[in-house]
Amino acid sequence: MYPRLTLLCLPVVLLALVVSGVLLGSLDLQTALEAGPGILTDLRLSRVLVAVLAGAGLGLAGAMIQGVVRNPLASPDVIGVTTGAGAAATALLLVFPDIAFSWMIPSAISGALLTMALMLWLIRHQGLNPARLVLTGVALSAWLAAITDWLLVSHPFQVNAALVWLTGSLWGRGWDHVAVLLPWFLILVPLTLVMALKLDLLALGDETAEGLGADVRNTRKWALLLSVALAAVSVAVCGAVSFVGLISPHLARLLVGGTHRRLLPATAMIGAVLVLLADILARTLAPPVELPAGVLTSLIGAPYFLFLLTRYRGW
Amino acid sequence: MAYLSIENLTVSYGEKVILKELNLQITEGKITALIGPNGCGKSTLLKTVARILTPKQGKVLLQGEDLHKQDTRRVARQLALLPQAPVTPDGVTIRDLVGYGRAPWGSRWGRLSDDDRQIVQQSLEQVGLEELAELPATDLSGGQRQRAWIAMILAQKTDLVLLDEPTTWLDIAHQIELLKLMRELNQEGKTIVVVLHDLNQACRYCDELVVLKQGALQRQGSPEQVLTQQLVQSVFELDAQIHPDPVAGTPTLVAV
Amino acid sequence: MATQVSLSGIPSVRQRVVLPVCLLVLLAAGVILASIGASTFTLTLSDFWQAISGQASTLAAQLVSTIRLPRVMVAAVAGAALAMAGALMQGITRNPLASPALFGINAGAACLLVMAQSGFLPILTSLPLIVVTAIGAALSGALVLMLGGGLAGRIHPVRVVLAGVAVTALLVALTRTLLILDEQSQSVLDWLSGSLTDIGWKQWHQLWPWVLIAAVLSWLLAQKMNLLALGEEMASGLGVSPVRLRLQVSCLVIILAAATVAITGPIAFVGLLVPHLARRFTGADHRILLPVCAVMGATLMVWADYISRLLVFPSETPIGLVTALIGAPCFLWLASQEVKH
After folding, report:
1. Predicted local distance difference test score (pLDDT) of residue A312
2. Membrane-spanning residues where (chain A) (predicted)?
3. Which residues 283-302 in chain C show a CB within 8 A of chain A?
């Protein structure tokens, strides 16, 4: 394992994908160029950037949650946070169909925070037992998903836009979205990286962490808040692209080890790579039909979750 | 002024009072063993000193300063704790793990300076793990893992070290190895407070015994003063004889 | 960890009489309400009587007899089938969370059905629907149990559920992909959560024989399941082969789930909740439990159907959403109850 080398290679892979994301598409390059620079920069480049940001956000959120609850099965989607963000954003979208996109983010964040609060209340007697946490999360997501679906059904005229968005798709994302997303990321991502050492200490158990001078309760609170916010921001722009938050930290841990100082940046990049890859495949697999990127990440992510499950020994 | 002074300490879990108005002084430079029957509050006392638990009433003073009123990083530079069941994280090498001992001193980002690295290396050498340093911590055996944790505490460079039942889960050879290591640390000037279950080991390897029963101090003093037939009878409700240890001459308990 | 179904709560004689009467009254009220309520037409009780006595003379009565009645009856039978399937699964796995939806069986059946209908696998297209869904149900059920650790009660109950959730996520993603590629994305929502739109007498005739057969057979196995509840060794000692019984019951579960999914699509939570609810009233004797589950499941679904049309009247909510909206909080409660043991 060469953590530093890997950490240097990841940006290269990401860059290569960004370039191919811009070049590949239903129009071949020649035609696209002749049609003017608009297709490449306005349509594809912006969309690729949204994918990178959202993927990085989901990956980081997953790494933080796994660090806080010391649970390899946890991730924002498994514990219901993304569904909560989705439900709140859908509600906003359906009640005010013409609302500016920038409002989606605060609404998604508040939905996610509410879900998290509900979740913490539900497990207040159980501590953070990994399996229970996931079970409760599953039930909570099922309920929130039902609410979201019901919202959609009860507003049949706005369904199409919301449906595309919900399944996790990057269709029609552009510079407007990048502009709204970027400030959030510029605030949240550095805050996340600052937590790296504290998360390392937290991984040693509450008592050891406290013994080494980490404030366990505060660390936990802030890390959860940040992770919920990152997940919500990502969901607000590309919908529930499932399983990215779950698998990116695991892949990153395999590549660069468990020290968060390296793990967090690596997770962000792997998350970006995954979402970008899923989006490129979604656009190019069966043109002109476009698959939701979320479906593709599920197809990869669910088997990986099953693999983790068969290896997990903490019952 | 005592080095570590516990004044009028009351600790409870919810309604249940574990320690009641406890007063205790720990001497600098000695190994003090906390002993007593299960549920007597010895682990609770250790955790309160390590500010994992907050007292309901009373204070813990380290060199005259209240531990529970200080910044937690500052406390971590003065005392180190090895809990009973620390969690070994995935994908972290032993060197990384020991490096975490520098957390209270180093940058908040976790990057180690050259001095830090040197301290980590010394700590690894002291516990004899320098050759395994690049292995994942999860690959270690029980005895090695416990030594890795000790190395982490060494890297923390504190004067006071708290060990909560460090010999649990170890076989007898590794238990003795660990207790000897504890003696070495003490000879380098560290004050050690340790919770032990085995009274004979406590007498053999510690300078002072503190006996607790139902959250109250029963006796404190050297093993010879403390470990008597009457005490074993009254605290553990066990009939026993006390004989000198054939090797070290310290008191040894033999059940009747 | 409580993997065993609670055997406490032996019902008194009075409960035995009162409960079925109450249930039947509720069922009847539900059937009537769902048949004539929540309609843009003004339907009356007399239309309902005309419809069920087979003399639908008015337009309204014809509407009830050709559109509403088959729909309500399919809902009732589907509810009974799912509830019985859940009770059977909980009986043989001794896992209180066992149910067709959580163990991925519904999703497997639905996925293969979509494969068959979209012509993705030509072999499937030529087979009868119920065979296709049964294959899907069996495959995904087996996969979940395997990943969850095996058929017997030794496995960790939560682990199986998580395996079920992941397999479901995978199958739903596959189904979605197929529907989108087949350019049926309009019906995605209806399809994946279970719906009773476009149900007529044809579907009713496809559904009831299977459910009836499976119900009778499972009732014949009820006493053996009671013995299995005493533990495998005890059951073997009393002359019941646990392996054979589990196989037989699994087949029945697959028939029940497959028949239902083929007609209504996957409907969640009925199979999970009804057996728990029923057990509170009847105790764990499967001879009583199974029929009570059937009636309760039917009642729940009929009412859910009524609510599904009332909720956003005049448009219609897929019934699977209604059961999920009611069911998920109950599931949370169940999961937290299980922790306390």
Report:
1. 67
2. 45-65, 77-97, 103-123, 130-147, 178-197, 222-251, 263-285, 291-309
3. none
Mark yes or no for CB contact A153/C312 under 8 Å.
Answer: yes
Q: Which CATH number fits the domain that encloses residue C224?
A: 1.10.3470.10
CB within 8 Å of chain A, chain B residues 52-71: 52
Q: Do B13 and B136 have their domain in common?
A: no
Where is the domain boundary, B157, B180, B198? B157
**B83 lies in some domain:** no
Q: Is pLDDT at C198 greater than 60 in this prediction?
A: yes
CATH number of the domain residue A307 falls in: 1.10.3470.10
Q: How many CB contacts within 8 angstroms connect chain A with chain B?
A: 100
Within-domain flag for B226: yes
Q: Closest approach of chain A CAs to the CA of B103, in angstroms?
A: 6
Q: Is C158 on the interface with A (CB under 8 A)?
A: yes
Residue that wins the pLDDT comparison between A58 and A311: A58
Question: With bands split at pLDDT 50, 70 and 90, how would you rate the model's confidence at C1?
Answer: very low
Residue with tokens 């692209």: A241
**Using CA atoms, how far apart are residues A306 and C162, in angstroms rounded to an integer?**
8
CATH code, domain with B21: 3.40.50.300
Q: What is the pTM of this model?
A: 0.78
Interface residue of C1, C106, C177, C188 to substitute, partner A, most A CBs within 10 Å:
C177
Determine A/C contact with 3+ CB pairs under 8 A as the test.
yes
Q: State the total domains in chain A.
A: 1
Which residues make beta-bridge pairs with B209?
B33, B221
In this prediction, residues A7-30 reach a mean pLDDT of: 78
Q: How many CB atoms lie within 10 A of CB C31?
A: 24
Average the pLDDT over C281-299 and give the result. Answer: 87
Q: Inter-chain contact B89–A258, Cβ cutoff 8 Å?
A: yes
- What pLDDT does C187 receive? 59
| Domain span holding position B227 | 4-78+158-255
Name residues whose C-beta falls within 8 Å of residue A13's C-beta, 6 or more positions apart in sequence.
A269, A273
What confidence tier does A162 reach under pLDDT thresholds 50, 70, 90?
low
Higher pLDDT, A76 or C341: A76
CA distance C79 to A90: 30
Question: Which of B157, B184, B216 finishes a domain?
Answer: B157
> CB B58: neighbour CB atoms within 10 A?
18
Which of A70, A204, A212 lies nearest to residue B156, judging by beta carbons?
A: A212
User: Which domain range does residue C301 map to?
Assistant: 80-340
Into how many domains does chain C fold? 1
User: Is residue C261 a contact partner of residue C106, using CB atoms and an 8 Å limit?
Assistant: yes
Token pair, residue A125, equals: 């007697």
In this predicted structure, the answer to whether residue C10 has a pLDDT above a threshold of 80 is no
State which of B208-217, C110-119, C222-231 shows the largest mean pLDDT. B208-217
Nearest to C147 among A126, A301, A310 (CB): A310
Closest CB from B76, B96, B97 relative to A213: B76
Q: What is the pLDDT of residue C7?
A: 40
Question: Cβ of B90 and A200 within 8 Å?
Answer: no
Q: A153 lies in which domain range?
A: 3-311
When pLDDT is averaged across residues B64-79 and rounded to a whole number, the result is 86
Residues of B with CB below 8 A from A261's CB?
A: 109-111
Q: Residue C76 pLDDT > 80, yes or no?
A: yes
Which residue of chain C has the CA closest to A137?
C332
Secondary structure E strands in chain B: 4-13, 16-26, 31-35, 57-62, 65-66, 79-82, 160-164, 191-195, 208-213, 216-221, 240-244, 251-255
Helix (H/G/I), strand (E/B), else coil: A143: helix
Encode pLDDT of B174-204 as tens digits.
Answer: 899 999 999 999 998 899 999 998 899 999 9
Concatenating the DSSP letter of every residue in B15-57 gives: TEEEEEEEEEEE-TT-EEEEE-STTSSHHHHHHHHTTSS--SE
Query: Which residues of B, range 109-148, sit inside 8 Å of A by Cβ?
Result: 109-111
